[in-house]
Amino acid sequence: MTKTFGFGAALRRLSLAGATLLAVAVPALAQSVDLTLEERTVNINGTDRPAVTVNGQFPGPLLRLREGEEALIRVTNRMRQSSSIHWHGLILPSAMDGAPGFSTGFVRGIAPGETFEYRFPVVQSGTYWYHAHNLDHEQRGLYAPIVIDKREPEPFRYDRDHVVQLSEWTDERPLRVLQNLKRDPGYYNWNRRTLVDLIRDLGRAPDGEARRAIVRNRIEWGNMRMDPTDIADVTGATYRYLVNGFRPETPATLLFRPGERVRLRLINSGAMTYFDVRIPGLKMTVVQADGNNIRPVVVDELRIAVAETYDVIVEPRDDRQYQILAETMDRTGWARARLAPRTDAPVEALPQHRPRPVLTMADMMMNPGPTGLDRGTPLPEQDQPGHVAPMGGMDHGSMAGMGAGQPQGQAAAPAMDHAAMGHGAMAGMPGTGGGQAAAPAMDHAAMGHGAMDHSAMGHGAPGRSGAQGPGTPATTTAGGMEAHAGHGGMTMADPVVHDTGSPPGARVLSYRDLRPLRADPEYRTPDRIIEVRLTGNMERYIWSMNGNEFWRAQPIVARLGERLRIRFINETMMNHPMHLHGMWMVPDLGNGAFNPRKHVVNIKPATSLDVDVIVDAEGDWAFHCHLLMHMESGMMRIFRVTRDGTPVASTQQPAQAAMPAGHRH
Amino acid sequence: MTFSFSKATSAGLLVAALSFSSAWAQAGGGHAGHGAPVSLGTNPSAVQSVGTTPASGAEDHTGHSPIYFGAVLFDQNEMRSNGRGSPIYAWEGSGFYGTDYHRVWVNTRGETSRERGALERAEAQVLYSRLIGYYWDLQAGVRHDFRIDPREGTPSRTYGVFGLQGLAPGFFEVQLQGFVGGDGVFLARAAASYDLLITNRLVLQPEVELNFSTGWDRDALIAPGLYRTEVGLRLRYEITREFAPYIGYSFESFNGGATGLNRRLGEKPSQSTVVAGIRIFF
């Protein structure tokens, strides 16, 4: 009845992505499926390499579920190591979550030869994905889309449905990649700033002041022992970027008929790579983020953090092919697919890469968030000594002054004055610092205002307009970036606006655009706030939260039913896509009950973002950075939800290792 | 040929994919919900069964414990020529194994004799290394200087070592070591180097090493104060991170009282050499 109707509706609405490697493995009515994990060779770059396949497929087969039914998934491990499947973003009992060492009764994962039976009610709809909860297997191919059909019709119309799953492949063993990074953090970065760049920049500089600024900028970065070109830890030097398993040279072809509305389910299944996605010639209407429907937003471009999903609708009208271009954030590679009316169209050339972005001093200027440096929030544990804040070498005194809204005339760096000004303005203080701006910096300061307003919007006014601006493209194109950095960027980094180097006027999605269709019924002020500092160091490739790696950290304990605010403070120079299993995270974007529910929240370098957790699922859950090399390095915690908020024994202890009968075969 | 092979493989994948997609296209837009599992993975050119891949403990790693890893770097692995006589071979290398925080560290250096070609002197250190902060390792252990030829050269010596090694602001690699010898003489060594990236592969590395002593150890050619200096400039080309041939210049000099000790042996207290070698990292 309902089922049949829904099924028929699904049939009418959906046509599977033609050229994807994904097969429909699930009868929609039965909701029962068998998945077999197996090592097989694939040949991506001309060499046979061992991949991890699901039912013989690389990447794994699409899993199609229906909201409101029960899913029964039997996973058989035919590999020689323990493995696991985690249902990313799904709300389910802890025991079914598939994170070894966290999930109840799932201490070692699925042992070789064993079959594990996952059984859980499907309580949500949208685009998700599943993957192994370890670096080695996920990087080598154990990832695939999950599409959950909504019980009621979607609030938006579309004629066709394609999955666009972004990922990477390396011929190296994934743990080898991690070890290379630990031995030499610049191992995969062949785009560092060089003497040749310096001479070129000095040659282009208009005057002596600009030249001095360039040199000063180099020295400042050197003194911080950081590399502004360190945008991605692992680059195109070893990665090939894939869409649905296809290299960009031989792209997947997603069919459409001109005039159709095509729903693209974008999934970033990369282990380490952020992609900037655009489809030249088409606007993308974002209708869903992380599986939750949002008010449609029309954008030209979006940055998809690792493990996020976005559903966009495009309306290709012309009888021609359109390229779905996903450029890596560090501009060292492309993933691409194409939308085409026919499969036999010749493959078009890839465009030139946009200029690579570099971090600026402004990016690294710690944005202390709404409370300033006086955080006043308790940490979930005692800190370990040894972490270094990014601005270690800079003048913290003036930062503190800024926090108080009193820009001080300290000449530590012009950047500081401007930042002070920006901050003062944000706080509604008179911008008294303006007079100190060095002449060449003035216009930049003006430009920076856009971003400043965004910040103010995010933390204060719940108005809509904050996200409507075109971002701040003018200051972001990399060509001018290094010079600008010399003057100091004028504002602190906005925690959610992305600089993709898009042309002026192009609209880039930001988290502030993500507004649910209806007010979140569970919205309320948080019961308490804890602080999670994202810590680590590129030079040693050490990653942690609050200075503690996973193996020496206490669990974060939450009480069932509370609304816990996590104040993320990213003290590193990398983006960290933070992922919490089993519960929704709600980034506070100043939109109150219209803040979106997400399973991954990206925390930009040197920024702070408040994220509320709706604590409604008992058990031990994994809470980690979804950059798998960071997770593997220890940027992970047990997120423990108990009824009374007191710690209970961890599932990691052998004493707790007993498994419930009936789930092992 | 690798490229064409990969092309062919990808083409195979593409063809398979295209035929697959056209099948879908013909079937119309309504197939998504059907249960028939279609597996492209059976495409034999792309995916074959692997019998067995040996399981190693490392592959089981799931982020629940510290990673053990190691590295070996032969920063100097070179022939040195001063324009007269036969060139000598010299090396300076180090290696470690352990976690981010705790490591066993081995440093070694040595060179061959200009006259005989055999090994003339060699030094090895075995250290425990503990990370303090993000940039510095505190190290302690032993150093042994080998006497290769029992009739000549410096005598063998064993020292206790403590030191600090890391990255100073400005990206200077720094090593500070103190040596406590058997004779109650205290030695110190300070070394620093910098990688100047001319391009991303062409790297100029200046390097300085200074050796100090608090007293005399005449047999080992050690005199109070600054007794030995090494300055080097090496230009390497990183074909890969692991393999980087280089050329350069090296200047070694005995200073202070050690000058006289050398003269007595009939050696020149300082010499400049042109060097050529291969930096190895793995």
Automatic annotation (TrEMBL), chain A:
<feature type="region of interest" description="Disordered">
    <location>
        <begin position="456"/>
        <end position="478"/>
    </location>
</feature>
<dbReference type="GO" id="GO:0005507">
    <property type="term" value="F:copper ion binding"/>
</dbReference>
<feature type="domain" description="Plastocyanin-like">
    <location>
        <begin position="524"/>
        <end position="642"/>
    </location>
</feature>
<dbReference type="InterPro" id="IPR034282">
    <property type="entry name" value="CuRO_2_CopA"/>
</dbReference>
<feature type="domain" description="Plastocyanin-like">
    <location>
        <begin position="38"/>
        <end position="152"/>
    </location>
</feature>
<dbReference type="Pfam" id="PF07731">
    <property type="entry name" value="Cu-oxidase_2"/>
</dbReference>
<dbReference type="GO" id="GO:0016491">
    <property type="term" value="F:oxidoreductase activity"/>
</dbReference>
<dbReference type="InterPro" id="IPR045087">
    <property type="entry name" value="Cu-oxidase_fam"/>
</dbReference>
<dbReference type="GO" id="GO:0042597">
    <property type="term" value="C:periplasmic space"/>
</dbReference>
<dbReference type="InterPro" id="IPR001117">
    <property type="entry name" value="Cu-oxidase_2nd"/>
</dbReference>
<protein>
    <submittedName>
        <fullName>Copper-resistance protein, CopA family</fullName>
    </submittedName>
</protein>
<keyword id="KW-0186">Copper</keyword>
<dbReference type="InterPro" id="IPR002355">
    <property type="entry name" value="Cu_oxidase_Cu_BS"/>
</dbReference>
<keyword id="KW-0479">Metal-binding</keyword>
<dbReference type="Pfam" id="PF00394">
    <property type="entry name" value="Cu-oxidase"/>
</dbReference>
<dbReference type="InterPro" id="IPR011707">
    <property type="entry name" value="Cu-oxidase-like_N"/>
</dbReference>
<feature type="signal peptide">
    <location>
        <begin position="1"/>
        <end position="30"/>
    </location>
</feature>
<feature type="domain" description="Plastocyanin-like">
    <location>
        <begin position="236"/>
        <end position="329"/>
    </location>
</feature>
<keyword id="KW-0560">Oxidoreductase</keyword>
<dbReference type="InterPro" id="IPR006376">
    <property type="entry name" value="Cu-R_CopA"/>
</dbReference>
<feature type="region of interest" description="Disordered">
    <location>
        <begin position="646"/>
        <end position="665"/>
    </location>
</feature>
<dbReference type="InterPro" id="IPR033138">
    <property type="entry name" value="Cu_oxidase_CS"/>
</dbReference>
TrEMBL record, chain B:
<dbReference type="GO" id="GO:0009279">
    <property type="term" value="C:cell outer membrane"/>
</dbReference>
<protein>
    <submittedName>
        <fullName>Copper resistance protein B</fullName>
    </submittedName>
</protein>
<dbReference type="GO" id="GO:0005507">
    <property type="term" value="F:copper ion binding"/>
</dbReference>
<dbReference type="GO" id="GO:0006878">
    <property type="term" value="P:intracellular copper ion homeostasis"/>
</dbReference>
<keyword id="KW-0732">Signal</keyword>
<dbReference type="InterPro" id="IPR007939">
    <property type="entry name" value="Cu-R_B_prcur"/>
</dbReference>
<dbReference type="Pfam" id="PF05275">
    <property type="entry name" value="CopB"/>
</dbReference>
<feature type="region of interest" description="Disordered">
    <location>
        <begin position="32"/>
        <end position="62"/>
    </location>
</feature>
<feature type="signal peptide">
    <location>
        <begin position="1"/>
        <end position="27"/>
    </location>
</feature>
<feature type="compositionally biased region" description="Polar residues">
    <location>
        <begin position="40"/>
        <end position="55"/>
    </location>
</feature>
